[in-house]
Design a protein that fits this description.
By secondary structure, this protein is mostly beta strands. Helix content is 0%, strand content 52%. A hairpin with a 6-residue loop joins strand 4 and strand 5. The chain is globular, with a radius of gyration of 13 Å.
């Protein structure tokens, strides 16, 4: 399984970005897909997940501003990020979890929010 994240970049505070993560393989439809982020000098933290059935969950810090969605026909998960803040600056990683063994991470995409 390979996960290819894209869509990061530089944006001003208050702006928006849409991240995409395209997955190879045949387990996408069955997997929980998630986004995590790691700011410089900090540990990786949870951002959002979406189950195979479309149930979503968000970290409190992004609730109401970020939206996770998935397109099973395209094997792709998205993260729409609105009202971005400088503290959202981080490398964003996508994750695919189907079983304890089938747990994969993408390479990350950098989001920088300027004040």
């Amino acid at each position: 399984v390979q996960l290819q994240a894209s869509g990061g970049g530089l944006v001003q505070a208050g702006g928006s970005l849409r991240l995409s993560c395209a997955a190879s393989g045949s387990i996408f439809k069955l997997a929980v897909m998630g986004w995590y982020r790691q700011a410089p000098g900090k540990q990786r933290q949870y951002v959002a997940t979406i189950t195979s059935g479309g149930i979503t969950n968000y970290a409190d810090s992004v609730k109401g501003r970020f939206t996770i969605s998935r397109d099973n026909a395209k094997n792709t998960v998205y993260l729409q990020m609105n009202s971005l803040k400088p503290e959202d600056t981080a490398v964003y990683y996508c994750r695919q979890s189907a079983t304890a063994i089938q747990d994969y991470w993408g390479q990350g995409t950098l989001v920088t929010v300027s004040s």
